[in-house]
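Our platform keeps sequence and structure together, in a single record for each protein. Nothing more is needed to write down the fold, since each code stands for a local backbone conformation. An entry from our holdings is shown next, in its original layout:
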Amino acid sequence: MDSTEATSYPPVVEDLTVDVAVVGGGIAGLCTAWELVQTGRSVAVLEADRIAAGVTGYTTAKLTALHTLVYSEFGAEAARLYAASQQDAVDHVARTATTLGIECQFERCPAYTYVHSEDMVGQVRDEAAAASEAGLRASLVTETELPFPVAAAVRVEDQAQFHPRRYLLGLADAITARTGVIYERTRVVDLDEGPPHTLTTESGARVRADSVVVATHYPVFDRALLFARLVPQRHLVVAAAIPAAQDPHGTYITPEANTRSVRTAPYTDGQRLLIVTGEMFTPGAGEVTGRYETLTDWTLERFPAAQLRYRWAAQDNSTTDKMPYIGVMHAGADSVYVATGFNGWGMSNGVLAARLLTGSITGDPLPWTDLYDPRRLHPVAEAGPLLKAQSKVAKHFIGDRLRSSHVDSIADIAPGAGAVVRVAGQRCAVFRDDTETLHAVSATCTHLGCLVAFNDAERAWECPCHGSRFSTDGAVIHGPATRPLEPRRLPDQRDERP
């Protein structure tokens, strides 16, 4: 984000009609708009905040078809289609950047999934064999360029890393130079399925379209009940400058130690920016500051010369069968599409989604269209993960309400901290800022009614059920919620909101 200029596209202020409306201005939304304008269709991108500034703006930007350990879990045909579609996305970014002349720090490099434990070597060996059989240039290795030994690793050639925001801002210019328009600060709050379909924005303006693509990371409209099959997860990122000579020349990930992902990016002369990801947790789980400390310690122990520069948190949605949901939103939908559940691999899946959805809209489907169909359900494969996901939601929805309070009283909340407190029979999310001023909002998420919890590192309220996030004054930071948390007045507050 720091290395690119801010955008300033206007909001929608009056009704309009287009061929396709794309809700969401991240990688899936912008790439879809780009593919569609090349067919001559008029396209409107509707972004609630700023394009390429949400989840996409804070990604770790590994562009690869190697997704930890998945190929050995798919059947042979599913694995083949998955590999072909993911590699196609990687190569498509390379072609598009070259065609449009976008300088996005695109670099080819190998991708690795590694383990330390001898107990997992067999699983890695199976993954290497399955990925190779699926068509990737995959092999089993025992040595990498990481500054520590590994027991085994899958290595896949011809993968990549890039600067996604630079790439997407280049696409945005290309979209608006053709038949597309981009609107920012335009939150969509309702969808009336047509024809034509009508989207209503927070300001009351309406956008009518023959086709609608919902690409909001977690769907803001869930006519297919996908929320029951999506699990939100957050993970932390630290970035540090290292000498260029210590570049491990590749992208790396391990499922061990609560996930560790490593890659680098161009930085200053003689340096690379080391990007380390890990410490996965459920939104609202708390103790985020401590998790950052754990990840920082891990990084400095393995890269002693690292000089910390940045830290941030990312958010992903996992599906119950480890396959994204890309396609027609629900069985009764007529030209309403969705792209979600990227399982932590948003770069390749966002590009893949754009190509798949464009093929569906134009009547030229791709070979892997059925593989990602959101209407699929695999009762045997999904039963366990589905029950686990819903039991977690039920635990928060019911269990959080059985606690009388998350702290005993407002007086227990320290400066810079927040907690859920019962006040006059209502659960309030109360934050005390550094000046001792209290900020109180409803503790009930406006999506489906779960109770929020406080993130101490980012000073935000998070919903543990479906991943919505809110600022301390209740404004929506991240969906699927589209409405803010309602303000609450504490007994000693005046009429005005703090």
The two ends are 30 Å apart (CA to CA). The chain has two domains: 16-372, 382-498.
